[in-house]
Amino acid sequence: MTFAEYRYLVRSDLYRISDSTSTSTLLKHVLRGSAFKYNFWMRTCAYTRSHPFLRHTAYRLARPMLTHYTYKFGIWIPFETRIGSGFYIGHFGGIVVNEHCVIGKNCNISHGVTLGVSNRGAKQGCPTIGDNVYIGPGAKIIGAVRVGNHAAIGANAVVTRDVPDHGVAVGIPARVISNEGSVGYVNRTDYEGKI
After folding, report:
1. Nearest to residue 105, comparing CAs of 181, 44, 189?
2. 135: confidence class by pLDDT, cuts 50, 70, 90
3. pTM as predicted
4. What number is the average pLDDT over the span 61-74?
């Protein structure tokens, strides 16, 4: 990862939370924020770990900070997880993501969400989440399922099968009830020209 890529990811995450990418807004959210603070240290760990010099300097600061906020906020998303730009954690607490998951850009994750592995069966593996996806509080997405672009996963849904683009999945086990998708849930995605 280059510094430009790192900066873009951090600023896009910040824009999704605050509608700003200014340095003062960044400092405010890193010093006094909650969920963005976790994003910042997660992205910083990924960046510093990927460079030989930074691995022996800045990473040694970033890693303990990420570990601290993992326990403080109850968020466990390994920095190795492939996560696109504009990642938004609505509320901290009880979030667990397997490091082999792939998450597209502009994903909203709520508290109590699990993106987990299935170790056997037809859907053995980890979820792949598309772009502009909303995942509601308490939702569980388990196994090698694909959640399509612009999809919405309802609160407490248990997803074990693929969800199509623009699908809205609810229930246990989750089933698609409409094609209205995540419109209105995933906002502030117009950061492309502002960063």
Report:
1. 189
2. very high
3. 0.93
4. 96
Q: Distance (Å, rounded) from C-alpha 88 to C-alpha 95? A: 12
User: Which residues contact residue 173 at a Cβ distance below 8 angstroms, ignoring those fewer than 6 apart?
Assistant: 158, 159, 160, 161
Query: Angle at the Cα of 184 (from 29 to 104), degrees rounded to 5?
Result: 65
Domains of the chain: 1-73 (no CATH), 76-184 (2.160.10.10)
CA 146 to chain centre: 15
Q: pLDDT tens digits for 160-178?
A: 999 999 999 999 999 999 9
Q: Alpha-carbon distance 63 to 151, whole Å?
A: 33
CA distance 59 to 65: 10
Q: Which helix (H) or strand (E) holds 97?
A: strand 95-97
**Angle subtended at Cα 128 by Cα 70 and Cα 160, rounded to the nearest 5 degrees:** 95
